Amino acid sequence: MTFRKTMTALLAASLLTAAAATAATYTIDATHSSVGFKVRHLMVSKVTGSFGEFSGTVDYVEGQPDQWAAAAAIKTASVNTNDAKRDDHLRNADFFDAEKHPEITFTSTGVSRKGDDWVLAGDLTMHGVTKPVELVVEFNGAITDPWGNDRIGFSATGVLDRRDFGITYNTVLDKGGVAVGNEVELMLEIEAIANK
Asked: Which residues contact 186 (CB under 8 A, 6 or more apart)?
């Protein structure tokens, strides 16, 4: 094979590889996903909560995490900690201020390897403030379901300081400490369906 033919073949192969690596877009299946959080309460325990309404997309390339991307929107008024009074408080101006800031949004900016983990970096907008956050991502698998839909699944965890987003409300306890922790743990279970 001549040099020219060899180079042509290599170029064609690289183009085919690039085409095969094009990301497929998947839409989050909210009925099989969850967006949760955990925050310390009275310095002795942690309260968990979740959001019931959210949507988003995942751009997925098989075997190439560095090409993955994600975007999501969460309805702040859908917060649920299994206590109606507390949830109403979380919706008001002391915390999420859901009337003024009805959504929390996330747009990824890249994926990188850190030690044994894949880390999804992105911009999180909450309470009118945008800050970078990082989520450690675990890919749980890909499958074609019995109805012919291609599905993927991920778990993701992260930590943020709510004060970075202007959510500073707290109560100082008589014996020291505060009622609500500032560090918020994020816990996501995401299942998404390929767009057709």
From this structure: 36, 37, 135, 156, 157, 158, 159, 160
